[in-house]
Write a structure and sequence with these properties.
Order of helices and strands: HEHEEHEEEHEEH
Distance between the termini: 123 Å
Strand order of the largest sheet: 2-5-4
Shape: elongated
CATH class of the largest domain: Alpha Beta
Number of strands: 8
Number of domains: 2
Number of helices: 5
Largest sheet: 3 strands, mixed
CATH topology of the largest domain: Ribosomal Protein S8, Chain: A, domain 1
Oligomer: single chain
Length: about 200
């Protein structure tokens, strides 16, 4: 009788210790209130916005929001959060594809004539026209300002820059080009057409 009581007492004590330890560890290392998986956050935004999402298999991350309730995140705010975690979104075929930002330039991004109307975190394709300076001269100056996932190239003789980047950064680059593109137009010698001698 005494032995069975001792075994029962030991079992209760052991279970109590395990429960207390588990409770203590979850309290000490528990996630903050705004923490959760990126997939769960996207599901919440999908429900609120009515948009349909397709997630690339590589889209996995734990997200921590401080001072923000995950249930109140809008689609535009989600674009900013995705950028912070190295992902991007593009709307195509009735879906929003979420994928690593390194692959975003190969997607059918919207072409915008004016980046002011696009959401700040949306990746877009834009053309900036240059009047005074050769466009190719601006590429090495502007390239460090382009995001890692973006792209910048020039059409030298057409005086145009082709940019793939977040709309907010395209707006910044447009401001920089406007500030630099002043003075008498300079035409690179390679772009000067020579008429044949008669």
């Amino acid at each position: 009788m005494r032995t069975s009581r001792q075994v029962l007492f030991a079992a209760v004590f052991l279970l109590g210790s395990l429960a207390a330890g588990a409770q203590g560890s979850s309290a000490g290392s528990g996630a903050p209130p705004g923490a959760g998986s990126l997939a769960d956050l996207i599901a919440t935004v999908a429900k609120d916005s009515g948009k349909r999402f397709v997630l690339d298999p590589r889209v996995r991350a734990g997200v921590t929001l401080v001072g923000e309730n995950p249930s109140r995140v809008s689609y535009e705010e989600l674009l900013t959060i995705l950028d912070a975690y190295g992902f991007a979104a593009v709307q195509t075929g009735g879906y929003v594809l979420v994928l690593p930002d390194a692959a975003i330039r190969y997607q059918p991004l919207p072409f915008v004539a004016d980046a002011k109307n696009a959401p700040a975190g949306e990746y877009v394709t834009a053309v900036i026209h240059v009047r005074s300076l050769p466009a190719a001269w601006l590429v090495p100056i502007l390239r460090p300002l382009v995001t890692r996932a973006g792209d910048l190239s020039a059409m030298p003789c057409a005086g145009a820059l082709l940019i793939v980047d977040r709309a907010a950064n395209v707006r910044r680059l447009e401001s920089v080009v406007k500030a630099l593109d002043t003075g008498v137009p300079i035409k690179p010698p390679s772009c000067v057409m020579r008429l044949p001698d008669r």
